[in-house]
Amino acid sequence: MHALLPTISADEALRRLVDGNERFLNGTTRWARVTVASLATMADGQRPYATILGCSDSRVPPELVFDTGMGELFVVRVAGNVFPGEVAGTLQYAGLHLGTPLFVVLGHSGCGAVQAALEARRAGATDESGIRALVESVLPALENVDPSLPLDAQMLMAVEHNVRWTLRQIAQTEQGRQRLRDGLIKLVGGIYEISTGRVHWLTDGAVGT
After folding, report:
1. Which of 118, 123, 143, 194 has its CA 20 to 30 A from that of 48?
2. How would CATH label the architecture of 10-25+46-208?
Protein backbone atom coordinates (compact mmCIF):
# COMPACT_ATOMS: atom_id res chain seq x y z
CA MET A 1 0.00 0.00 0.00
CA HIS A 2 1.15 3.53 -0.79
CA ALA A 3 0.77 6.51 1.50
CA LEU A 4 -2.26 8.61 0.68
CA LEU A 5 -2.48 12.39 0.92
CA PRO A 6 -5.44 14.04 2.65
CA THR A 7 -8.37 14.94 0.39
CA ILE A 8 -9.51 17.82 2.62
CA SER A 9 -7.72 20.10 5.05
CA ALA A 10 -7.49 19.34 8.75
CA ASP A 11 -9.36 22.57 9.51
CA GLU A 12 -12.24 21.53 7.23
CA ALA A 13 -12.33 18.13 8.93
CA LEU A 14 -12.47 19.78 12.35
CA ARG A 15 -15.26 22.11 11.16
CA ARG A 16 -17.29 19.07 10.12
CA LEU A 17 -16.89 17.57 13.59
CA VAL A 18 -17.84 20.81 15.31
CA ASP A 19 -20.93 21.20 13.10
CA GLY A 20 -21.88 17.58 13.66
CA ASN A 21 -21.71 17.94 17.43
CA GLU A 22 -23.96 21.00 17.18
CA ARG A 23 -26.52 18.96 15.21
CA PHE A 24 -26.29 16.24 17.85
CA LEU A 25 -26.97 18.80 20.58
CA ASN A 26 -29.84 20.42 18.68
CA GLY A 27 -31.57 17.18 17.73
CA THR A 28 -31.15 17.81 13.99
CA THR A 29 -28.98 14.80 13.15
CA ARG A 30 -28.86 13.71 9.51
CA TRP A 31 -28.32 9.96 9.75
CA ALA A 32 -31.58 8.27 10.65
CA ARG A 33 -30.81 4.92 9.04
CA VAL A 34 -28.39 2.95 6.88
CA THR A 35 -29.57 1.40 3.63
CA VAL A 36 -28.15 -1.51 1.69
CA ALA A 37 -27.56 0.87 -1.23
CA SER A 38 -25.40 3.14 0.93
CA LEU A 39 -23.34 0.15 2.07
CA ALA A 40 -22.66 -0.83 -1.53
CA THR A 41 -21.08 2.57 -2.26
CA MET A 42 -18.39 1.87 0.35
CA ALA A 43 -17.47 -1.64 -0.73
CA ASP A 44 -14.43 -0.55 -2.76
CA GLY A 45 -12.61 1.23 0.05
CA GLN A 46 -12.69 3.84 2.77
CA ARG A 47 -11.56 7.48 2.93
CA PRO A 48 -12.48 8.80 6.38
CA TYR A 49 -11.72 12.47 6.90
CA ALA A 50 -10.81 12.18 10.61
CA THR A 51 -9.36 9.63 13.00
CA ILE A 52 -10.75 9.57 16.53
CA LEU A 53 -8.92 7.98 19.45
CA GLY A 54 -11.59 7.77 22.13
CA CYS A 55 -12.51 5.92 25.29
CA SER A 56 -14.40 2.63 25.19
CA ASP A 57 -17.12 4.06 27.46
CA SER A 58 -20.50 2.98 26.04
CA ARG A 59 -21.88 6.50 26.48
CA VAL A 60 -19.39 8.11 24.10
CA PRO A 61 -19.89 6.76 20.54
CA PRO A 62 -18.02 9.20 18.24
CA GLU A 63 -20.22 8.51 15.19
CA LEU A 64 -23.29 9.70 17.14
CA VAL A 65 -21.53 12.49 19.03
CA PHE A 66 -20.36 14.01 15.73
CA ASP A 67 -23.41 13.00 13.66
CA THR A 68 -21.34 11.23 11.03
CA GLY A 69 -22.25 8.50 8.60
CA MET A 70 -20.52 5.22 7.92
CA GLY A 71 -17.12 5.67 6.32
CA GLU A 72 -16.55 9.23 7.60
CA LEU A 73 -14.58 8.48 10.76
CA PHE A 74 -11.79 6.02 11.51
CA VAL A 75 -12.43 5.24 15.17
CA VAL A 76 -10.10 3.64 17.71
CA ARG A 77 -11.56 3.07 21.17
CA VAL A 78 -9.66 1.95 24.24
CA ALA A 79 -10.37 2.58 27.92
CA GLY A 80 -8.87 5.89 28.98
CA ASN A 81 -8.01 6.86 25.37
CA VAL A 82 -4.47 5.67 26.08
CA PHE A 83 -1.72 5.06 23.52
CA PRO A 84 -0.27 1.52 23.69
CA GLY A 85 1.65 -0.02 20.83
CA GLU A 86 -1.36 -1.55 19.11
CA VAL A 87 -3.11 1.81 19.06
CA ALA A 88 0.04 3.47 17.71
CA GLY A 89 0.08 1.02 14.81
CA THR A 90 -3.59 1.61 14.07
CA LEU A 91 -3.13 5.38 14.00
CA GLN A 92 -0.10 4.97 11.77
CA TYR A 93 -2.27 3.01 9.33
CA ALA A 94 -4.85 5.80 9.36
CA GLY A 95 -2.26 8.42 8.57
CA LEU A 96 -0.28 6.57 5.93
CA HIS A 97 -2.86 4.45 4.15
CA LEU A 98 -6.13 6.30 4.72
CA GLY A 99 -4.73 9.82 4.52
CA THR A 100 -6.81 11.31 7.35
CA PRO A 101 -5.63 14.88 7.96
CA LEU A 102 -7.16 15.25 11.44
CA PHE A 103 -6.44 13.15 14.52
CA VAL A 104 -8.61 13.76 17.57
CA VAL A 105 -8.00 12.43 21.08
CA LEU A 106 -11.43 12.42 22.69
CA GLY A 107 -11.66 12.12 26.46
CA HIS A 108 -14.84 12.44 28.48
CA SER A 109 -16.16 13.54 31.84
CA GLY A 110 -16.19 10.92 34.56
CA CYS A 111 -13.71 8.63 32.79
CA GLY A 112 -13.38 5.42 34.81
CA ALA A 113 -9.79 4.79 33.75
CA VAL A 114 -8.74 8.26 34.88
CA GLN A 115 -10.63 7.86 38.13
CA ALA A 116 -8.89 4.52 38.74
CA ALA A 117 -5.52 6.16 38.13
CA LEU A 118 -6.32 8.90 40.64
CA GLU A 119 -7.31 6.27 43.20
CA ALA A 120 -4.14 4.30 42.50
CA ARG A 121 -2.07 7.41 43.05
CA ARG A 122 -3.74 7.94 46.42
CA ALA A 123 -3.87 4.38 47.69
CA GLY A 124 -1.72 2.25 45.39
CA ALA A 125 -2.76 -0.12 42.61
CA THR A 126 -4.82 -3.13 43.67
CA ASP A 127 -6.50 -4.12 40.38
CA GLU A 128 -5.92 -7.22 38.28
CA SER A 129 -2.83 -7.11 36.06
CA GLY A 130 -4.58 -5.98 32.87
CA ILE A 131 -6.39 -3.12 34.57
CA ARG A 132 -3.21 -2.22 36.45
CA ALA A 133 -1.38 -1.86 33.12
CA LEU A 134 -4.13 0.46 31.89
CA VAL A 135 -3.92 2.55 35.06
CA GLU A 136 -0.15 2.79 34.72
CA SER A 137 -0.63 4.19 31.20
CA VAL A 138 -2.66 7.04 32.66
CA LEU A 139 -0.52 7.81 35.71
CA PRO A 140 2.09 9.95 33.88
CA ALA A 141 -0.71 12.31 32.84
CA LEU A 142 -1.46 13.06 36.50
CA GLU A 143 1.97 14.44 37.33
CA ASN A 144 0.75 18.05 37.48
CA VAL A 145 -2.66 17.35 39.03
CA ASP A 146 -2.56 18.80 42.54
CA PRO A 147 -3.56 16.02 45.01
CA SER A 148 -4.64 18.63 47.57
CA LEU A 149 -7.52 19.80 45.36
CA PRO A 150 -11.07 18.52 45.96
CA LEU A 151 -11.65 15.19 44.25
CA ASP A 152 -14.08 16.65 41.69
CA ALA A 153 -11.53 19.29 40.71
CA GLN A 154 -8.79 16.67 40.46
CA MET A 155 -11.00 14.59 38.19
CA LEU A 156 -11.75 17.46 35.81
CA MET A 157 -8.09 18.39 35.59
CA ALA A 158 -6.96 14.77 35.23
CA VAL A 159 -9.29 14.07 32.28
CA GLU A 160 -7.89 17.09 30.42
CA HIS A 161 -4.29 16.27 31.30
CA ASN A 162 -4.79 12.70 30.12
CA VAL A 163 -5.99 13.92 26.71
CA ARG A 164 -2.99 16.24 26.45
CA TRP A 165 -0.63 13.44 27.50
CA THR A 166 -1.91 11.19 24.71
CA LEU A 167 -1.60 14.03 22.20
CA ARG A 168 2.02 14.55 23.21
CA GLN A 169 2.78 10.85 22.84
CA ILE A 170 1.31 10.80 19.32
CA ALA A 171 3.22 13.94 18.36
CA GLN A 172 6.48 12.45 19.58
CA THR A 173 6.34 9.29 17.47
CA GLU A 174 8.58 9.19 14.43
CA GLN A 175 5.65 9.24 12.02
CA GLY A 176 3.84 11.89 14.04
CA ARG A 177 6.85 14.22 13.99
CA GLN A 178 7.36 13.73 10.28
CA ARG A 179 3.75 14.25 9.22
CA LEU A 180 3.36 17.25 11.50
CA ARG A 181 6.56 18.73 10.06
CA ASP A 182 5.27 18.15 6.51
CA GLY A 183 1.92 19.75 7.33
CA LEU A 184 -0.03 16.58 6.55
CA ILE A 185 -1.88 16.20 9.86
CA LYS A 186 -3.29 18.15 12.76
CA LEU A 187 -3.72 16.82 16.32
CA VAL A 188 -6.58 18.15 18.42
CA GLY A 189 -7.90 17.22 21.86
CA GLY A 190 -11.52 17.25 22.94
CA ILE A 191 -13.52 16.37 26.05
CA TYR A 192 -17.06 15.07 25.75
CA GLU A 193 -19.40 16.15 28.55
CA ILE A 194 -21.66 13.19 29.18
CA SER A 195 -24.39 15.16 30.94
CA THR A 196 -24.87 17.63 28.07
CA GLY A 197 -23.52 15.93 24.92
CA ARG A 198 -21.18 18.83 24.14
CA VAL A 199 -17.58 18.39 23.04
CA HIS A 200 -15.24 21.00 24.53
CA TRP A 201 -12.24 21.47 22.24
CA LEU A 202 -8.74 22.04 23.60
CA THR A 203 -7.87 24.35 20.75
CA ASP A 204 -4.91 25.79 22.65
CA GLY A 205 -3.43 22.29 22.56
CA ALA A 206 -3.84 21.72 18.82
CA VAL A 207 -0.68 20.64 17.02
CA GLY A 208 -0.04 20.89 13.31
CA THR A 209 -1.53 22.61 10.30
Report:
1. 194
2. 3-Layer(aba) Sandwich (3.40)
